[in-house]
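[Solved] Which block belongs to which protein?

Original post:
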Amino acid sequence: MKRKWIDKKVLILGLSKSGTAAARYLSNKGADCFITEFKPLQDKDKELVETLEKEGIKVETGVHSEEFLNDSYIAISSPGIPPKSEIFARLKEKNIPVIGEVELAYLEATSPFVAITGTNGKTTTTYLTSHILSSEYDAPVCGNIGIPPTSLIEKNPDYYVCEVSSFQLDSAPTFRPQIACFLTFTPDHIDWHGGLQNYFDAKASIFQDHKQPMYAVFSGVDETIYRFSKQYTGEKFIYAKELDKNCCYIKNDAIFFKRNKEEEIIKLNEITLVGEHNYQNIMCAIVVAKLIGISNENIKERIMSFKAVEHRIEYVADINGKSFYNDSKATNPEASFVAVKSFQGKKLTLITGGRDKNTDLTEFCKDYINKYVSTVILIGEATQRFKENMETNGFNNIILANSLEEAIDISLNLENEIVLLSPACASYDMFNSYEHRGEVFKNYVQSKLQ
C-alpha cells in the first residue's frame, strides 16, 4: 500500500543508481529527500549531484552527518552497504527504520513482480523472461540488473521482471513477488553476509511462510535448492527435472513443460544460446511464461530470437578460424565452470584470472580445467595461486600474460578453435568493473579484424 510522503524526511543511503532513483521518486511524491554518501565526492558524480540539488534533493558526501540522520521518517539503503556498517547501528539507535529500494518499489507499485535470484544465471534468465513476457505484456527488466524498479513505477508496467541479489533481499522484509525463482546456489559474498548459511538464508528469505509467492520456481539440478524445494509448502514448479507434474525438462532433444498435460515447447537445435546452463535458464523462463499465460508459439519465437546477454558467454568474433567469447561476468569459479563446459569437445583456450576471491580451486582445476581446457592463459593478481593449483591438479599447459591484450595476442598464435575469457575472479586489479574488462576484451578482439 502506498504511503503518503508529503513533507516526510527520507534518508537515502548511498549515491547509487537505486538510491538516486528512490530519491527522485519520493521527491516527486512530496518527500524531503536527503542522500548521504560516505565516500568522498568523485569527479564522475559532480554533475549528478548538481542535478539532484537543482531538483530539491539534498546531497552530502564523505560523511553521514547528524543533520541528515536526525528526524528521518525512514531510510532507504543501497544494496552494497554491508549490514555491519556503522550507519545501521546509528539508525537503530535513533529508531529509524531501514528498507531497500526493491522493498520501496514493491510497497509503492500496483503491478506484480517476477523475482529471479541465485548465485549465477539470474541476469540471463531475467532478460530472457522479460523478452518472452514482452511478446504479450509490458514487462521490463529491473533490480540488480542496473535498472531500479522505482524508476519504472510511474510507467505502470504489467509486470516487473526483477533480478534480486542477496543484498537486496536482505533489506526487503515484506517483498512478496507473484512468482519467485531460485536458480543456483554456490559460495559467494561470504564476508558481506558473515557466513555461507547467512548468504543462503538471505536468498531463501523470499520463500518464507509469511512472504510465500503465488508460485515458486526451483532448480531441479542444484542439489541445495532442490533439497530446499522439498520443504517448501506453497505451490511450486521444478525445472531441469521430469516429475509427475509442475515441471519443465529436456526429453528427446526438446524442452517440455508439464502441468496438467505434457507440451513440447522447443527443440534444442532451435536454440541459439550456448551451453547446458542456458538450457536451464530457458526452462526457468518457460515456467514463468506458462504461469503467466504466454502462448507456446510466442515462447518459442522469443527463445529463438533471444541474443546472449553482454559479458555472459557472448560471441565476439571469428578470427583465422578461432571463435572468441566474452564471459567477463564470470567473477567466481562456479560461473566459469558452466562457461568452460559449454564448449565440451572443442579445443579451448581459457583466459582467466584477476583479483582473487580466495575460493577453493580444487574442483575448478581438477574437474573442469583438466577435462575441458587445452590451454590456460593467466592474467592478474590471482596468477600465482591459480598456476600452483592447476599444476597441483595435473594441468601444466599454462601461459602467463601481463595484460588482457597480451593474452589475446598469445591466443591468436595457438591452434585451439575457441578462445574464452572467463576470469573466475573479480576485475578490480586491472579494470573498473567486469563490464569494463569485457569491453576491453571485445574492443581488442574486434581491432584484430581490421
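(Second protein starts here: sequence line, then its C-alpha cells.)
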Amino acid sequence: MAKNKYVNGILPMVLINFAIGSVYCWTLFKEHVQEYTGFSDPPLDWAFSIAIFFLGMSAAFGGKIVEKNPRVSAWLTAGFFTAGWLITGLGIQLRNPWIMLIGFGPIQGLALGLGYITPVKTMMIWMENAKGFAAGLSIAAFGLAGVIANPLIEWMLQGFAPHEVFYILAVAYGIGLVAAAMLLYRPPYVDDNPVILSDKFSAWSVISSGKFLFLWLIFFLNIAGGLALISREKQIYNYGGGYPNYLALVMITAFANLAGRMIMSTLQDHLKLKHLPYYLMVGASLGMALLAATKPQSVAISFSLVFVIQFMFGCGFACMPNILHQNWGMKYLSTVHGLVLSAWAIAGLVGNQVSSFVMRNYSLRWLFVVLTVVYAVEAVALLIWVTIRRRSARQIEAAQLAAEPA
C-alpha cells in the first residue's frame, strides 16, 4: 500500500500527541487522587514537575534514536507511556506515593520526551514546502490534546475511582500508540544544509558552540518566564479585588497559546530568516511585562500580559524546529531538537519555584519585575545569538568558496 502524509504522517502524529498531551490533565486528577489516597500536596506537585523534567531529558538523549528510526522511538513511547500510566494507577490504588511518583514521573516522562520529538521531523519531511506549519501542527497537537481530553477525564472521574481511570486510559492510549508506531513512516529526504555534509558532527560539537548555548538560553528563559506567569494566573486575576469570571480568561489565554503555535510557525514558512518571529516574541514579552509592573492591579493589563505571554510561549516552541533546521540541517534535526529541549526540563523546575518564592515573600508587582528582567536578559541573548549565527554563516560561506575548484 502506498504511503501518504495523512495515514503515515498526520494520523500517527495525532495519535501520539493525543496520548502524551494528557500529561496536562494532571491538574484534574490531583483533587480526586488526594481525596482517594490522602496524599499531601508535595508528592502530587512533584509528580508533574518530574514528568516534565524527564520529558526534556529523554528528548535530549533520545534524539539519536529518532534519527535512526522513528518507528523504534514510537514503539518505546507506547511501552513507557502505557507502563507509566498503569504503575501510576497501581500507586494510587495501593495509596503508595512512591509508586505513583515513579510511574507518572520518570517512566511516563521517558515516553513524553520520545513521543514529543518522534513526529516532528517526519512531519517536516512530509510537508517539505511548509516545514514551519508542519512543526507547528505537531507541537500544537501536544497542547491541544490535553484540552480535548479534559472534559472526558472529568466525566470519567465522576463515575470511576482515579486509579480505574488511569487503567482505562492506559489501555485506550496504549492501543492508539501501538497503531501510531505501526503506521508511522518517514519518507526519504534530501540533505539541504551544508552543515550536515560535515563528518565531524556530534552532539558535543553542537552543545559546545556559542550559537547553540545562546539559543538554549533564549528557549530556557522564554519557558521559565511563561511557566512562572501561567502557573499563577488565578492569583493574578484575583489580585487587588478579584475578577468574578477568571475561568473565561483562562480559556481565552489557553487558546492564545495554541494560536501562537500555529500562526507564528505558519508565518515562519514565508520568512527567509526563520528566527525573525523570535524578535517579536522577545519584544512583545518584554514590553508587556514592563507595562504590567507599573500597574499590577489592573485586570485588563494583567490579562493582556498573560495573553501575550501565552501566545509567545507557543511561538517559542513551534518556531524552534525550523530555526534548528536552518542552522543545523534536516539530517540531525531530531538530535539537535532533543538537545535544546533539555531547556524545558530545567525551566519546568525553575519557573514554578521562582514564582512561588516571589508570590510567597513579596507581591505581584515584584513577579512582573522579575519577568521584565527575565525577558530583558532574553533580548540580550537573542542579539548575541544573531551575531554568532552571522559569523558562523560567513565562515561556512568562506569554506564553501575555498573548496570550489579554481
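Accepted answer:
You had them paired correctly. Confirming on the second one: The mean pLDDT is 89.
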